[in-house]
Structures are given as C-alpha cells and as structure tokens.
Write the structure tokens for this entry.
Amino acid sequence: MKLLLCCCLLVISTLADDYAVSTRRFPKNFKWGTASAAYQVEGGWNADGKGENVWDTYTHLYPEKSNYQNGDVTSDHYNKWQEDVDLLAGLGVNTYRFSIAWSRVLPTGFVNSSNPGGIAFYKNLIAALKEKNIEPLVTMHHWDLPTNLENLGGFLNPAIQEWFLDYARFLFETFGDDVKNWVTFNEPKQTCEQGYGIGILAPYIVGPGVKNYQCGHNLLIAHGKAYRMYENEFKGKQGGRVTMVVDSNWFEPASDSADDIGAAETNLLFTYGWFAHPINFGDYPDIMKQRIAYRSKLEGFNKSRLPSFTEKEKEILRGTADFMCVNIYTSSMVSAIPEPEIIPLSPTRDLDIGTNAYQPDDWEATITDWFKVVPWGARKLLNWIDVTYNHPEIIVTENGYHDNGTVIHDLDTRGRYYKLYLSNMQDALYKDGVNLTGYMAWALTDDFEWQYGYSIQLGLYQIDFTDPDRPRTPKDSAGYYRQVVTTRCLVDDDQCTD
Ligand SMILES: *[C@@H]1O[C@H](CO)[C@@H](O)[C@H](O)[C@H]1NC(C)=O
Ligand SMILES: *[C@@H]1O[C@H](CO)[C@@H](O)[C@H](O)[C@H]1NC(C)=O
Ligand SMILES: *[C@@H]1O[C@H](CO)[C@@H](O)[C@H](O)[C@H]1NC(C)=O
Ligand SMILES: *[C@@H]1O[C@H](CO)[C@@H](O)[C@H](O)[C@H]1NC(C)=O
C-alpha cells in the first residue's frame, strides 16, 4: 500500500478542492456500466404471475417506513425495459448490472413454482442487452426475498441455505448460457443489519447484535454452497464467475495514534470484513470473533452471539469470490473510545464495534446526513481491499450521488462527484497498482430508494413519477458519463493522455 494511513487530516480534507483530476485514459478493456435492482426499478409487482417479496408485502403493511411510497410501479422498467436498454446503448456502456427478482421467476421462492412470464422477461432483457454488446452482471438477491420464504423464517432459518442453493441452480440452468458474471447477494450487511438487526429495511425485524449475525451466517453459507455448486456443475460448460457484492464506507483514523488507526481498522473489518473475510479466508475477522464473544459473555449470553463456522463450512467458504466487488458512496472518520458500557442482554453491532465513527461537519454535505462527498476515501478503500485480500481483481459495483431528484443541470454536483471519485479510483489503479477492472454507476434512472421512497434520487436519467408514462429525461450527468465511457477519460478529449 503506497498511501499512508496517517497523513495530516487538514491536507486530506481539503484535497477535493485543489485535487487535480487525472487526464489519463482508463484501460481499453475496462468494464463500464450502470447498476440497478429489481425492486427499485421494475414495478409490475404482481404482473404475469409474479409472487410477493418482502418489499411488496412490507411496504404495503407499513407504508410509513418508506416515506409512504413503494415500488409497485416505480420506474416501470418491467414495461419500459427496451427503452432502458436503448439508453444504456446510448451511454456506450459495455456492462449492465441488474438483479433478478426471485419471486418473479419463482413466486413462492421454491423451484417447483417457476413462472414462465417472469422467466421470459429476463430472457428478453438479456437477449436485448447482448444484441447491443452489453454484458449482463446479474445479482441473484438484491434484498427482495420471496415473502413465502420470509414467512418460514427468512434468513434466520438455516434452510435458507438450501432454498438459495435451489434458486441459484435454477438461475444457472435457465440463464447461465448468457450470463457469465454472477453476484449471489448484494450488500448483505444491509440485508442483515438493517433488515434483521436495527429493522429499518424489510422485513423490519429488530434483533440487534443477535439476529443480524444469524442472518449473515446463513447468508454466507448459502453463498458458499451456491459457489461450490456452480464450480462443480456449471463452471466447466458455462465458464462464468461468481462473487458477492459487499459495500463499505472508507473509515479514516481521526489521528495517527495507534488507537485511532486500530479503531478505523475495526470498523473496516466489522463492515467489509464481516462478509469479505469468510468468502476469502473461510472465517470472520479475528477482531469480530474476539469482541463479540467478549461482550456476549459480559452481557449474560451463554455463548457468543456471533455463530461459528464448522471446519467443513470454512472449507466451503474459503476462496468463493472469483473477483471482489465493492459499493462505495462515502466515508467516515473514526476515533477510539473506552470500552462501551455493558448493558445486560442488550447488544448492538455498534457496541460490538466499540468506536466513535462520525462524519465531520466540514466535509461536503448532501441532502442526507450519512452521505458526505469524500472522493479520496474511494482510493483508500480500494487500496485497503487490495492489500487485505491479496491483490484481487476489483469491480466497483455501485457509486453515485444523490439529491432530491429535481436537478437536471447536475454537472456541478453529480457530474463532479463522478469525476472526482473516478479520478481517485483511477489513481488507485495506475498510481497504486490496484487491479480495478470495472465501474458501475448507480444509477441509470431514478428509482425507488428503499426507506427514502422517491425523496432521494441518483439517476443519470430523471423520471417523472407523477406521469403514468414515466418519461426518462437525461440529466447533464448522463452526457458527462457518456463522454467518460466513450473516451475512457474524465476531461475533454483533446486534453486526454494515454
Ligand atoms: C414445492 O416445494 C416445497 C418445498 O420443497 C414444498 O413444501 C411444496 O409442497 C411443493 N409444492 C408443490 C406444489 O409441489
Ligand atoms: C443458554 O442459552 C439458551 C438460549 O438462549 C437457553 O435456552 C439456555 O437455557 C441457556 N443455558 C444456560 C445454562 O444458561
Ligand atoms: C487483474 O485481474 C485479471 C483477472 O483476474 C487478471 O487477468 C490480471 O492479470 C490482473 N492484473 C493485474 C495487474 O494483477
Ligand atoms: C431540490 O434541490 C434543489 C437544489 O438544491 C433546490 O433548488 C430545490 O428547491 C429542491 N426542491 C425540493 C422540492 O426540495
């Protein structure tokens, strides 16, 4: 790692302003794309035999938890997919990351319920993409578990390992001749911490410090089993690759003291490492195992709240990422604090981490409190992944800027965000030697943004959600992204260097 973790903070926090954007072109074979998720864009929530997923069910039951809005229609990609493929072709991208809605192809979640209408939708989409030379990068689970499976315990039931295995086999059989890059799970930390821990994402289960880890454990083993099944049954004939998408902030030590550096590392390991360590090394990071066991005992639990893998499970999991993926949006500063108070039988993941993570007020703000614009953090996070996981191939599978969705002339906000983040990522690639091979902008179009409903937006194309036709209007950033993709360069073509 060529970056120093402990440079002076003042220098870093002003970097964005006087930072010189790279004029170099990205490599010729770089993967450029945009990313989306089924529930956020498709709509057609009960069309053509689709079953309900937890987002359908729980946004209907608890509308107040998602700004009184839902994804019943959203961007209507289910009907407007051909137009969206044309938009992708117009941007010049060579890759499109999207997810398959489990309950659209298997309405009950089980393979004996397969739905021809849902299968046809994805077959048509994939064929249209390939016709335009756009490679699909397909996520199997982007938070939308079939409700039938949730009713059987969802990710808290170890049977999810077999349900997912069957679903994955069905996907490889059905789409695997055309799809060569598979993601099992998207952002499992959000599925488990926000869905089963603090309970702010569907299915809104509250089980902090316990159910979040049980969810993660079952999800990880499900991933490992699906990876091995692909390896054994499909890889030979289909020749594709399988991985997981893990998201993380960069966590910057608040000072160059050993304690703060350690506290920042602890956050990285509890966030990216929670999932990336098991799929690379076969087990959770030591610090997670140690801290959760330690606090569990003092809290009165008779064993660690973090489940442990059997030797067989470790073997299944070790080396189950054919390349690494990361979703990068923002960063945090971290300082060490004294061990947080023990509250009997009342754990949380934050207490398990036991640090002070925060975003300084002088970092550039957006309209939500957790999202500051911190371009240099992207370079550092990529370097950390490179070092920690022994120089893997890395694809940035999400990155983007959110506002309230009304701004069409967004070059100074979204366009600038893309320019500065991509320039820092390119520095990771060229200056630091990180094997970054692709970048997926979030997102092609405006969409349903989970707990925020439609109140925050990240699209390159604006959608008027009050118009039944859901017209797509290019924002200025779409033109900029098209320029970046087609010239492989962040500045005007005549200033680009090889
Ligand atoms: C489908 O499979 C599930 C899980 O194995 C089973 O419980 C269910 O009875 C099956 N349904 C039908 C119609 O065969
Ligand atoms: C240990 O925990 C389990 C699950 O909470 C509980 O059923 C059991 O009684 C506990 N055993 C002891 C010895 O406390
Ligand atoms: C980057 O990863 C790709 C795919 O695994 C590999 O072919 C290539 O050699 C790697 N490049 C570097 C510089 O490590
Ligand atoms: C959305 O944000 C823009 C730019 O910050 C602002 O001018 C506009 O008033 C906002 N609109 C709403 C409805 O909040």
User: Anything to note?
Assistant: The first strand starts at residue 31 and ends at 35.
